[in-house]
Amino acid sequence: MQRAGSFFLLILLIAGVLFSISCNSCQSNKNMVQLELYRQISPEFDADSAYAFVAKQVGFGPRVPGSPAHKACGDYLTGKLAEFGAQVIEQKADITHYDGENLTIRNIIGSYYPEKEKRILLFAHWDSRPFADEESVPDKQRQPIAGADDGASGVGVLLEIARHLHRLPVEVGIDMIFFDLEDWGQPSFAADWVQGDWWCLGSQYWSEQPHVAHYKAAYGILLDMVGAANATFLKEGYSMKYASEVLEKVWGVAAKLGYGNYFLSKSGGYITDDHLPVNQHHRAPSVNIINLKTDTHTGFAPHWHTHRDDMRNIDKGSLKAAGQTVMEVIYTEKGT
Ligand code: AHN
Ligand code: ZN
């Protein structure tokens, strides 16, 4: 019986349609297998639209904090969130970096139904790395990257979700945060290593000083590097440690939608990323949807922190899998 059930499932998966097998009557009647189609609740995530939002960001040039491209892209993102009906708050803070450089953090926050108590936090980083330290040639290592996957992809998916939130409401409050200064961690070629947590400066700041006093969300979802072809979203370590229920919920929804080939039931390493301070400061138990690899020396895709992280690496199938899954999660969430 089980073999027959698996056989059916395999065939149907190949057809690209997800079925759930209701097998209550299997024991009494060997030939009775009921197949039930999972009906998607959320509106159709448009991967072409998400792709265009990624391309638009990359078109500004590297979004290195302090640069004109960074300023222009930040203005674009605040404008889009406002256009899509969010209440926009910009959080700015001056910090001094490991190299003594003074930088201003610009976190961009878009809120839907700010009056609602039950909230879901969706986040990504919008800055791009000032270095390509995974390049082998020293000259190339000192140039900023385009950051199509690393940065722009997560923000592009969230903008597409914002576009839908404007048209069709959800039952819960949503906060989208585009964090700044995630990716200015010390480069591998740094001569003197300065002790400190130099990654995720925007999310560290917000986690300590949230835009709303005592902010808490029911849960949070980070999208980091969700744009490359054949992305594999492994179960990242801190996500399992701090937010295992959220992780099972999100991965379960992905499986029901037929994206089990992206959201794998396999654990990945612990990644210092924007969800870490959010979890540590108890702002929301948060998971990281991030493309992790087991066959590269970095643990990330081969284009990570190189000049190959440009639009050639962006794949609509991966954007769709990540985007539709997150949309289904929020559109099926009940308000209390
Ligand atoms: C570390 O490599 C320590 N963190 C990776 C976080 C990251 C960088 N995500 C994107 N770029
Ligand atoms: Zn990065």
Structure description:
The protein has a single domain, classed as Zn peptidases (Aminopeptidase), CATH 3.40.630. The chain contains 9 helices and 10 strands. A 6-stranded mixed β-sheet has the order 3-4-6-5-7-10, with helices on both faces. It has a two-stranded antiparallel ribbon with strand order 1-2. Strand 3 and strand 4 form a beta hairpin. Helix content is 35%, strand content 18%. The protein is of the alpha/beta class and 336 residues long. 46% of the residues are buried.
Tally of helical runs: 9
Q: Remind me, CATH topology? A: Aminopeptidase
Structural class: alpha/beta
Percentage of residues in helical conformation: 25-40%
**SSE order, as H and E?**
HEEHHEEEHHEHEEHEHEH
- The fourth-level CATH homologous superfamily is Zn peptidases
Content of β-strand: 15-25%
CATH architectural group? 3-Layer(aba) Sandwich
The main pleated sheet reads as: 6 strands, mixed
CATH class bucket = Alpha Beta
Q: Which strand order does the major sheet show?
A: 3-4-6-5-7-10
Distinct ligands, ions and cofactors found in the model: N-[2-(1H-imidazol-4-yl)ethyl]acetamide, zinc ion
How many domains make up the 3D coordinates? 1
Principal-axis shape equals globular
- N-to-C span: 41 Å
Spans of at least 5 consecutive residues with low confidence:
9-13, 16-30
SSE layout and pairings?
Elements: H1 2-14, E1 19-22, E2 34-37, H2 47-59, H3 68-83, E3 87-96, E4 102-112, E5 119-125, H4 138-141, H5 148-167, E6 173-179, H6 201-208, E7 219-224, E8 233-235, H7 237-257, E9 263-267, H8 275-280, E10 286-290, H9 316-331
Parallel strand pairs: 5-6, 5-7, 7-10, 8-9
Antiparallel strand pairs: 1-2, 3-4, 4-6
The chain binds N-[2-(1H-imidazol-4-yl)ethyl]acetamide (AHN) and zinc ion (ZN).
